[in-house]
Amino acid sequence: MTEYVIRRILLFIPTLIIITMITFLVCRLAPGDPTEMKIGQTQEAQKTDSKNLMNEQAKEFYKKKFGLDKPLYVQYFLWIGNMLQGDFGNSFKDDRPVIDKIFERLPVTISISLLSFLLIYTVAIPIGIYSAARQYSLLDRTTTVILFVLYSLPNFWVATLAIVFLCNVEYLKIFPTAGIRSENFDSLSFIGQVKDRFMHLFLPVTISSLTSFAFLSRQMRSSMLEVIRQDYIRTAKAKGLSERKVVMKHALRNSLIPIITLVGGLLPAMIGGSVIIETIFSIPGIGQLAFQAILDRDYPLIMAELVLASVLTVVGILLVDILYSFVDPRIAFTKKSA
Amino acid sequence: MKKTIAGIFSLMIIMTLLFTSCGRKKETTESKENADVVLTELMPVDTVNAEEGDWVIKQEMADAEKLNPTVTNDATATGIYIYIFESLLDINRETYELRPLIAKSLPEISEDKLSYTFDLKEDVKFSDGTPLTGEDIIFTVKTIKNPFTDAQALRNYFVDLKNVELVDGNKYKVRFNMAKPYFRAVYSLGSMSITPKHILDKDGMNEKFTWEELEEAQKSLDPKKYPEMQKYADFLNSQEVSRDPKYVLGSGPYKLDKWTTGQSIVLQRNNNYWNKSMVPNFPNKLVFKIIQDQNAALVAAKNKEVDHMFVIPPIDFVENVKDPAKFNLKKALVSEPVYIFIAWNNKSPLFSDKKVRWALSYAIDRQTMIDKIVYGMGTKVQSPVFIESKYYNNDLPVIEYSPEKAKELLTEAGWKDTDGDGIIDKVIDGKKTDFKFTFINNNNPKRKKVMLVIIESLRQLGIQADLQEYEWSVFLEKTKKHEYDACYSAWQLSVTPEDPYQIWHSTQSEGEGSNFISYNNPESDKLIEQNRMEFDDNKRMEILKKWQQIIYDDQPTTFLWTEPSRFIYSDRFRNTRWYAYPDSPLLNEWWTPASAQRYQN
Predict the structure, then answer these.
(1) Distance (Å, whole) CA A41 – CA B442
(2) Which residues between 82 and 121 in chain B have a beta carbon less than 8 angstroms from any beta carbon of chain A?
């Protein structure tokens, strides 16, 4: 087992190098110029009179400063050399170390992702079990329809609707519109602060869960259905065990295996989804940061975020593999000695 | 469980219904709205009964990058640091004339227009109580002239500044010496935000750099030769200097209280402010709250989570805040020195002919677009100068929509449909060329509507135009590199005397200069150069009017209209004065009657 894990970790290195190489290339080959974005013009009107007007000399200055005047492969090797020493460089936009910018925002994104995870699993698994155990019942059919609807609704659309109808004095004013805390947060009592946080996080967390929630409960249902048809379940039923015991004790454990595989895929998907949700709800997390970084062609920041996302994915997959052997002893990683 | 699911389901149905019905309502009322577009007047000062207290929460689209005025040039930061830092002169927002702020009076300008001497007020203090003197001004200029600081954009305006000195060692009298005369120099010098030397340069490192050294360093740009300068620049460029309230400190009416990245920037009143009688600071706090999404921002304003915002899409301003009083909001429509135009790439063989450009200008129905797309909130312009300024040439006749004239001019220019494919063509350089081109756009829905209307009118003349959308940074790159045929664009102007050099002089069309339409007319170049050297305002006015006539005759771009800024704000504020000069309004002069104040402390 340990040997396996070590081997897998060593495999990270070539994987990461290839990922960074591709993303680096894609980043640079895409049109757009980061020095242009230093001008600070608004999209509505460019300014004629102000220090915002950039000339050739200024662009050269920034090109040199950002190292964009060197050949592409040199830039890549410089970048990867620095990265291996833990230096992701400074953001083009405000000269702050990229690491600082990401770490100050990471807790927000992680807590939203974890909360969504919790929500997804606590709701989706019971629904999946229930609709499998009562296949073709009225409830099974209604949940099927509802979940398909939820699954097909794009979350940016749901988010915009939620803001317009659930956060708006014109219709229903239940939740705040933006951010993760009120302006007077510091002056609130502890209970008040908890409530303030809850209200701010409710919509982002629920909406970012919607799609995965539908997906997961469908998965749960089908894997449960598969297990329920197995011989040993029939045996258990024949022994005269109660329906409840059969489902919860004998079927559940085996049907959870495919669900676990999904954890590995959900984590990076959540981080990806956070780009949309955080931008709409003005949540200062890394998704919003990534979105802005891409618009600004802030290469060091884009690269750092991509490395982060790919590490998360790779680690997620590894975790899933390890979890497997815990849930299902039939799966072993060490080669059987001949 | 059953109930909640049923609940969610019915809620969704209701939401869908509401959404669709809203959509329909919009379509039917669209045309009636244009009736009364009235600009908000500049009200007289109303501070007799002014009371201190309350906050003003303003919505911002994006977070600021840096708050040190020397090293920043982003739009959000500029709107915030004006409350923290001050300059020698400022602009009287009613007359648009310069007036003294930290200086006692306007500078004494030498006969040869090369030296500017300022007498400073002696009671000016930074918010920590330290007096502001000529030493701070010299220090600030040195940080700008230091070629390794991030002041590159600002540095352009100080290229011709040779040095700054105290006159006879008097700490309250400084002289700026220029290498060349330039009529706008007084604006650059006067508007420089002054940073504190005692905080940003405790050890006096900058005193070691002589003006000659700074000049040489600028030429060589070699950090190894000037390690000390590089070291100081590294400090000034660092994140602490631009983010930490300890360093972001000026002499202005507010000081930086707290900056929560991506969420808000809070300024707190400077209680020791030296100039309270002239520049009030009524609100306790100015909060700049970042809400990226426009829909969310508008809802936040209705919910009273935001007190003041700039509304970008005209449709939101007209349709989505129909009855502002219902939400305790008011609207303001303020003229802004901006003009919108269709840029024709003058280098393209399609648009190099003046007659063709005139034909295109005739073919565009500006009035209909103003009525339909911006809900009447627009005034047609004929030249690239702020329409309300005294430099604007009012004698230029409005170009009325006339497809007939357009057709005539195109025929005169040799464009005819010879092959009957519905598209006019002409032999250029021995090759038959169809009149086909592509507009580029930056994913802006309003701009897209304008261009679709234009494309349709051009189609009727036998011109085939397409539309290609790009992301903003790509759009900018394409225009700067002249890789486009035509696009919609806008320039924000100044209300102070105009210098068209950067945008219209032919030298600026080389490389990636701002003359991205590649306009080139020696006569115009000559007038622009004359204008730069002229210190007599009346003579400059004459030159500029003559220059506008040349631009008008050439029609290098089709000037569309100027659009006022659209604001909404909470009705609890008094003394909300709206100026054309950016940044407008000045939130420090707003106040709330004690009974209506919403925020304490």
Answers:
(1) 13
(2) none
Average pLDDT of chain B, as a whole number: 87
Which of A153, A164, A163 has its CA nearest to residue B22? A164
φ/ψ region of A255 (left if φ > 0, alpha if ψ in -120 to 50, else beta) reads: alpha
pLDDT digits (tens, 9 = 90+) for B251-296: 999 999 999 888 899 999 999 999 998 999 999 999 999 998 888 8
Identify the three-state secondary structure at position A2.
Answer: helix
Would you say B580 and B363 are in contact if contact means Cβ atoms under 8 Å apart? no
Total domain count, chain B? 1
Q: Which residues pair with B332 in a beta bridge?
A: B567
Instruction: For residue B523, give Cα distances in angstroms to B87, B261, B285, B353, B549.
Output: 37, 50, 52, 17, 11
**Whether A93 and B65 lie within 8 Å, measured CB to CB:** yes
**What's the rounded Cα separation, in Å, for the pair B452 and B23?**
21
The residue that leads in pLDDT, B567 or A249, is B567
Q: Which of B413, B280, B436 is nearest to B354 (CA)?
A: B413
Residue B587 contacts residue B55 (beta carbons within 8 Å): no
Cβ–Cβ of B338/A187 closer than 8 Å? no
Q: Does residue B526 lie in a domain region?
A: no
- Kindly state whether residue B135 falls inside one of the protein's structural domains: yes
In a domain, B224, yes or no: yes
User: What pLDDT does residue A45 have?
Assistant: 53
The CATH number assigned to the domain holding B99 equals: 3.90.76.10
Q: Nearest-CA neighbor of B187 among B94, B111, B90?
A: B90
Nearest Cβ partner of A95 from B154, B239, B494?
B239
B240 touches chain A (CB under 8 A): no
Residue A143: which residues within 8 A CB-CB, separation 6 or more?
Answer: A127, A131, A217, B5
Question: In B, which residues are within 8 Å of A95 by CB distance?
Answer: 66, 150, 237-239, 242
Closest to B278 (Cα-Cα) out of B146, B99, B134, B426: B99
Instruction: Please give the radius of gyration of chain A, using alpha carbons only, rounded to the nearest integer.
Output: 25
Residue B218's alpha-carbon distances to A37, B108, B194, B457, in angstroms, are: 23, 29, 22, 52
Phi, psi for residue A97 in degrees, rounded to 5: -55, 135
Please check whether residue B168 lies inside any domain of the structure: yes
Q: Which residues constitute the domain of residue B98?
A: 89-242
pLDDT along chain A (338 residues), means of 10: 81 86 87 70 51 59 82 89 87 86 88 87 86 84 86 88 85 84 80 88 88 83 85 84 81 79 75 85 88 86 87 82 75 55
Closest listed residue to residue B551, CA positions, set B484, B506, B512, B513: B506
| Cα gap B437→B164, rounded to integer Å | 52
Which CB contacts under 8 angstroms, 24+ apart, belong to B518-525?
Answer: B518/B345, B518/B346, B518/B347, B518/B482, B519/B346, B519/B554, B519/B556, B520/B346, B521/B550, B521/B554, B523/B550, B524/B550, B524/B551, B524/B554
Which pLDDT does position B34 carry in this prediction?
A: 47
Those residues with Cβ within 8 angstroms of residue A40's Cβ, 6 or more apart along the chain or in another chain: A52, B65, B72, B73, B74, B75, B77, B78, B153
For strand B436-441 and strand B486-492, is the pairing parallel, antiparallel, or unpaired?
A: parallel
pLDDT above 90 (res B307): yes
- Cα torsion A148, A154, A156, A160: sign: negative
Q: Does B214 touch chain A (CB under 8 A)?
A: no
Helix (H, G, I), strand (E, B) or coil at B368: helix
Nearest to B492 among A47, A163, A168 (CB): A47
ipTM over 0.85: no
Contact A292 B150 (CB under 8 A): no
Quote the tokens at residue A263. Answer: 């954890």
Contact yes or no for B259/B246 (Cβ under 8 A)? no
User: What's the rounded Cα separation, in Å, for the pair A110 and A101?
Assistant: 15
